[in-house]
Amino acid sequence: MAILKSAAARKKSAPAAKAPASAKAPAAKSRKRARRVVDAAAVQEIFRRFQQANPEPKGELEHVNAFTLLVAVVLSAQATDVGVNKATRPLFAVADTPQKMLALGEDKVRDYIKTIGLFRNKAKNVITLCEQLIRDFGGEVPRTREELETLAGVGRKTANVVLNMAFGQETIAVDTHLFRVANRIPLAIGKTPLAVELGLERVIPAAFMRHAHHWLILHGRYVCKARKPACDRCLIADLCTSPEKTI
Length: 247
Ligand code: SF4
What we know:
The protein is mostly helical and 247 residues long. 63% of the residues lie in helices and 0% in strands. The radius of gyration is 25 Å and the shape is elongated.
């Protein structure tokens, strides 16, 4: 009985033994603290180095005007820039305006882009987008995000790329590379592209906003790669606080 009693007593006292769980809380909190974005001086230095290394970064999607840029970006969803360029070079040679693209027709557009993923749907979107441009915007590519987002196949990211590259606006288009890099360094921590975009807008100094998204995309594509970041040749390794850093 005495044994039973002490066992029961131990059972009763079990919840109290969970106290260490609360003792773990500060550690968990401190882990969160470690993932705070880098401070303003580090942000300034990161972009100073990106600028010094590549003063005029360029996107890699080939285009000849705002319209062909818009089409190229629409086609680039879930496809590589190299693959898109291969298909659009001959396409844009014969259709560099919405009118010419419409005259070409959906079947022929589909033929030109058949090497790109989701080409059927994308060909449909390109034709609809051309009809919308002519009907709603006099054949011109609109210059606001709200207007761009009314076009077939155009979401916030596509709109931001066009605003930045075609019209020089200080937008940040968050693609998969930029999303990863921003969360890694971290410059902005977010679970969605929009959260990262807004976070970056808060911390990036105005002087660097125009080219910030290209620097970060190129950094993610060629250095801070998804599986194996090349930290040994990273310009900003000393400023990065990523646990994935390999040096
Ligand atoms: S140090 Fe490594 S993880 Fe950090 S930004 Fe550079 S490549 Fe990415």
